[in-house]
Amino acid sequence: MRLTVSSTIRMEDELMLSSAMINRLNAQINLEMFSARLYLQMSSWCAHKALEGCATFLGQHADEEMAHMRRLLSYMHETGALAILEGLEAPPHNFGSLKEMFSQVYSHEQLVTRKINELVHLANSEPDYSTLQFLQWYVAEQHQEEFLFKSILDKIDLIGTEGQGLFFIDQEIGKLASTSGSKTLSTIG
User: The whole model's pTM is what?
Assistant: First the structure.
């Protein structure tokens, strides 16, 4: 069968995704981009405070969030949908303490989890089984993200940030960065 150029062009009514799903996926793309910028800003704050382990870890995490965004973007392209990158608000740039900063990260990851769950609900309700299958990776990823940052907060509480505690916390979080993306805290002891 020979395809002509006109037969390979996707028309609006031939999209694989509903307009509601396209809008929600676009919102998620933009949230992932904001997450990357947030973690990059936090990395800069840590570097400014001489918390190099935390700075490296958060810089790597910013890269990971961009990879999440690219994965969504690729899915949009595969389905013939147009991804729309919106203007982003500036992330906060000053934090009262390392614990406050990681508390904000944990809260942000809980928000991302809620948004992923809303996408899953929409995909299940439509039903859009292809998108539902695609989103399962994000469901598992968000479980790991929340566990990771809750565990970091638990370790901050356990070790403390007084005296040499801040140094030890920075060292332990720096070890997470050196594990090249490991989501477990088995290296924190």
Answer: 0.85
